[in-house]
Amino acid sequence: MNDILKQLDEVLEARKGVPADQSYVSSLHHKGLNKILEKVGEEATETIIAAKDAKLSGDTAEVVYETADLWFHSLVMLSHLGVSSDAVLQELARRFNLSGLTEKAQRTQGD
Ligand SMILES: N=c1c2ncn([C@@H]3O[C@H](COP(=O)(O)OP(=O)(O)OP(=O)(O)O)[C@@H](O)[C@H]3O)c2ncn1[C@@H]1O[C@H](COP(=O)(O)O)[C@@H](O)[C@H]1O
C-alpha cells in the first residue's frame, strides 16, 4: 500500500516537468494551487454525498471511488507544495504510537 503512495508521489513529482496539455496532473500543476484546492473541495463534497447515499442504500462502491478521488487530489496538493505522502504517513504513525494502540493491537492478535 505504501508502495503505491510512493510510486504515485514519484509520478506526481515528475509531472511538474511535463507540458500542461500532456497529462491531467501536469495541467493541475500548471494551473496552480488554487485550482488544485478547488478540486480537493469538489472531491470532498462528492465524498460526503456518496457517504450519505451509501448509508441509505448499503452500496459502498461509490464512496470508495469518491474517496480515492479525494485522496488523489490531496496527494496532488501535497506534491505541489513539495510535501511527500510519507510525511503524512509518519504523522499518522506518530499519533497511532502515541495512543498506545500498537501494544493493544499486538495483545489482541495474541488472544
Ligand atoms: N489516480 C489518478 C486519478 N484519480 C482521478 N483522476 C482524474 O481526476 C479527475 C476527476 O475530476 P472530475 O471527476 O471533476 O473530472 P473532470 O471534470 O475531468 O475534471 P475538471 O475538468 O473539473 O478539472 C478526472 O479527470 C480523473 O481522470 C486521476 N488522474 C490521475 N491519477 C493517477 O495519476 C497518474 C498520472 O496521471 P496523468 O497526469 O493523467 O498522466 C496516473 O497514472 C494515475 O495513477
TrEMBL record:
Keyword vocabulary terms for this entry: Amino-acid biosynthesis, ATP-binding, Cytoplasm, Histidine biosynthesis, Hydrolase, Nucleotide-binding
Family matches, as InterPro entries: HisE (IPR008179), PRib-ATP_PPHydrolase-like (IPR021130)
Subcellular location: Cytoplasm
Presence of keyword ATP-binding: yes
EC number(s) from the headed UniProt entry: 3.6.1.31
Pfam families (UniProt xref): PRA-PH
Pathway: Amino-acid biosynthesis; L-histidine biosynthesis; L-histidine from 5-phospho-alpha-D-ribose 1-diphosphate: step 2/9
Catalytic activity: 1-(5-phospho-beta-D-ribosyl)-ATP + H2O = 1-(5-phospho-beta-D-ribosyl)-5'-AMP + diphosphate + H(+)
Recorded superkingdom: Bacteria
Family stated for the protein in its record: Belongs to the PRA-PH family.
Stored PANTHER family: HISTIDINE BIOSYNTHESIS BIFUNCTIONAL PROTEIN, HISTIDINE BIOSYNTHESIS BIFUNCTIONAL PROTEIN HISIE
Family matches, as NCBIfam families: histidine_hisI, PRK00400.1-3
Name used for this protein in its record: Phosphoribosyl-ATP pyrophosphatase
Organism annotation: Pokkaliibacter plantistimulans
Lineage per the UniProt record: Bacteria, Pseudomonadati, Pseudomonadota, Gammaproteobacteria, Oceanospirillales
Gene (name only): hisE
